[in-house]
Write a structure and sequence with these properties.
The protein is α+β, with helices and mostly antiparallel strands. The protein folds into four domains: 263 residues, Jelly Rolls, CATH 2.60.120.200; 30 residues; 98 residues, Phosphorylase Kinase, domain 1; 236 residues, Transferase(Phosphotransferase) domain 1 (Transferase(Phosphotransferase), domain 1), CATH 1.10.510. The protein is built from 13 helices and 32 strands. Strands 1, 3, 4, 9, 14, 15, 16 and 18 form an eight-stranded antiparallel sheet that branches. Strands 2, 5, 6, 10, 11, 12, 13 and 17 form an eight-stranded antiparallel sheet that branches. A six-stranded mixed sheet has the order 19-23-24-22-21-20, with helices on both faces. Bound molecules: 2-acetamido-2-deoxy-beta-D-glucopyranose (2 copies). The site of one 2-acetamido-2-deoxy-beta-D-glucopyranose has 7 residues, from loops.
Length: 658
């Protein structure tokens, strides 16, 4: 009955203790078997054997038990105090101190529960020093160790007796002490004793109780200490555990069998002061802003904004922005049988949008493709002329670059001149595929008008930069419509050229100076127009100044040769034989040669070309010999003189001779 009552009280006490310690570090060792060994560090003459902490060795040979000192500590330091806050702890352990039987000397020297800054056992801390201090560290003012000693030997004059409890602070001399003799408990008795050390960090009190046996409630504490602020004597983080020693004559076995330690968790010191945290947070915010900014910038760079308002819309009649799904619907989801043509830029599809036939150009999504789309929308989007292809709208969505043009029933000039596959039309010389002279003349007039408009009449000067047969589209009445403004650039009127690092245009249509200067000018457009005029009148391909294929003679050289030899009429497209105004055709060829003058200063303007075509001006003089290409180009007045008398510093190339 009494037994069960005790058990109940004990259980209550345990639960109270647990409740008291809502957040704390708990070390619970009902024994020190293998599984717990790793939690400890044994120093000096100590070991963990026989499932107990042998704070000094438990050796069979009694003669080896002399002059030992050891420490066994929990491996991690615990937080004892922080600023004004001191943790409360409860260290309860079952220990056994056994004197050596049949030995002459008295038992000694004792065991202690310690809280220490330093794990290592001090040198020469055996005997009276209990493994706590040595002669040189004894009484030091350094905050290094606090011990609750269970002393079994009177070693100093002021040592109470050979069976007492004491509180030692950086010293072997106890600050507070109490003899156990009156309690009937003998430390060195070979009996298991339980010690309970309770420290209250708030009240700054310490109570030390010693019980006989295993968890048996005893009378009030043997030692009650008030006004003991451990933060004054120890560093904030300390190791906890045990120390013990034996002397030269007095020996004993010192061991701990069970240990229950709990300490309030008062948290760690903020290692970084408040201002440190502020600096860190501010830097993190800045870093995040930087990353976000960079990301936005990246996105902005990658995907130039193409919302309607970024593109010029003149008087509200600019090209319309289409939805991708509408254009997919219009072209049967870009179906193959709607294909009108394809090129390096992408593919053109036939479609119907808002009940109107359109050609949808699907541009390859490359940086250049996007550049071309922007060029088209910003140039022809704002231009209106009967000889320009109307850009109805555009779409830039989901990585698709699309341009919507009015549909041209008769496709492009090159398909009509050379046939479907770009083969010469001789391949299928049916009446239908041969473009009549009237139509050809009309086409050239249309292109000239369009160019004159671009160069001289619209608000800003526009250079097309890519005049060629495949860019001339024909409507249902075979009227020329200039298209493909992918390379076009707009200028303020004063500016006369566009310079670029990469040379743009189509070989065969490019003026010789373009290769030297890289500058697109109205004159380079005129040159390309000249080549186009020769192409239309002769039905030949332009040939290429760059092409490896030497067999295709450059069209300019070929026509010029005929002109020099007086056989210019042989240059007229043989398919037109007998079915053309030969005078008009010769005029067109000569006009073409005039436009292809290697000296850009001698090429007529588009305005002058227009006047010639409508018969209001006479043909410009065309030299019988093709002039050599001289750069820098001589001014018109200069070149009328003998060319050998000047231009000493000129670079003479044979580009045209190839
Ligand atoms: C101290 O810990 C021991 C062992 O866990 C326990 O039995 C005892 O009740 C505790 N004392 C207090 C006051 O919490
Ligand atoms: C006391 O212990 C310290 C630390 O181990 C050591 O440096 C010192 O030499 C020791 N003093 C003596 C007298 O052994």
């Amino acid at each position: 009955m009494a037994q069960s009552c005790r058990f109940l009280v004990l259980t209550l006490l345990v639960s109270f203790g647990a409740l008291n310690c809502a957040s704390c570090l708990n070390l619970t060792y009902p024994d020190f078997s293998e599984e717990y060994k790793g939690d400890f560090k044994d120093k000096g003459n100590s070991a963990i054997v026989k499932e107990a902490l042998q704070v000094t060795y438990d050796l069979n040979d009694d003669t080896l038990l002399t002059d030992l000192s050891g420490r066994i500590l929990y491996k991690n330091p615990v937080r004892l105090w922080k600023k004004k806050q001191v943790a409360s702890f409860n260290s309860t352990f079952v220990f056994n101190v056994s004197p050596v039987k049949n030995r002459v000397g008295a038992p000694g020297d004792g065991l202690a529960f310690i809280l220490t800054e330093e794990m290592e056992v001090p040198h020469n801390s055996m005997g009276q020093w209990l493994g706590i201090v040595n002669v040189s560290t004894n009484g030091s003012s350094h905050r290094s160790i606090v011990a609750i000693e269970f002393d079994t030997k009177k070693s100093f004059p002021d040592d109470l007796d050979n069976n007492h409890v004491g509180l030692n602070i950086n010293s072997i001399n106890s600050r507070n002490k109490a003899s156990l003799n009156s309690t009937g408990i003998t430390i060195a008795s070979e009996r298991n004793l339980t010690a309970m050390i309770l420290y209250d960090g708030v009240k700054k009190t310490m109570n030390i109780s010693v019980f006989k046996g295993h968890f048996v409630l005893a009378d009030p504490p043997v030692l009650s200490i008030s006004d003991i602020d451990l933060s004054k004597y120890l560093v904030g983080k300390v190791y906890v555990g045990f120390s013990a020693s034996t002397g030269a004559v007095s020996v004993e076995r010192n061991c701990v069998l069970e240990w229950y330690f709990s300490i309030d968790d008062i948290g760690e010191d903020p290692k970084i002061p408040i201002w440190g945290w502020i600096i860190i947070s501010v830097s993190i915010v800045f870093a995040l802003c930087g990353v976000l900014g960079g990301w936005l910038f990246f996105c902005y760079k990658r995907k130039p904004k193409l919302d309607g308002h970024d593109l010029p819309i003149i008087s509200g009649v600019g090209p319309k922005k289409f939805k991708l799904k509408d254009l997919k619907g219009a072209t049967g989801n870009f179906s193959e049988n709607r294909e009108l043509g394809r090129g390096a830029f992408g593919i053109v599809y036939k479609g119907t949008v808002e009940g109107r036939l359109v050609a949808v150009k699907r541009i390859k999504n490359t940086p250049k493709g996007l550049q071309n789309l922007v060029a088209e929308v910003t140039t022809i989007g704002s231009l209106h002329h009967k000889n320009l292809v109307e850009l109805i709208g555009w779409c830039y969505e989901d990585r698709e670059l699309l341009l919507v043009y009015e549909y041209m029933h008769n496709r492009s000039l090159d398909t009509l001149l050379y046939g479907e596959d770009g083969k010469l039309s001789e391949a299928k010389p049916t009446q239908d595929t041969t473009l009549s002279w009237k139509k050809r003349y009309n086409v050239i007039c249309g292109v000239a008008q369009a160019l004159d408009y671009l160069h001289n009449e619209c608000l800003k000067r526009v250079l097309h930069r890519d005049i060629k047969a495949s860019n001339i589209l024909l409507d249902s009445d075979f009227n020329a419509r200039l298209g493909d403004f992918g390379l076009a650039r707009m200028f303020k009127r004063e500016k006369t050229h566009y310079s670029t690092k990469e040379i743009a245009g189509t070989p065969g249509y490019m003026a010789p100076e373009l290769f030297l200067t890289g500058k697109a000018t109205t004159e380079t457009d005129v040159f390309a127009f000249g080549v186009l005029a020769l192409v239309v009148a002769s039905g030949r391909k332009p040939g290429s100044q760059n092409e490896d294929d030497e067999s295709i003679q450059n069209i300019i050289d070929w026509v010029w040769q005929h002109y020099s030899m007086g056989t210019i009429s042989n240059a007229i497209d043989p398919k037109l034989k007998g079915n053309c105004d030969e005078r008009q055709a010769k005029c067109m060829l000569l006009l073409g040669l005039a436009c292809c003058n290697p000296n850009p200063n001698l090429r007529p303007s588009m305005g002058y070309v227009m006047q010639v075509l409508i018969g209001e001006a006479s043909l410009p003089q065309v030299p019988f010999e093709k002039p050599a290409f001289v750069w820098p180009a001589p001014s018109p007045s200069f070149t009328h003189e003998d060319s050998s008398s000047g231009g000493v510093l000129s670079i003479i190339t044979t580009l045209d001779g190839r």
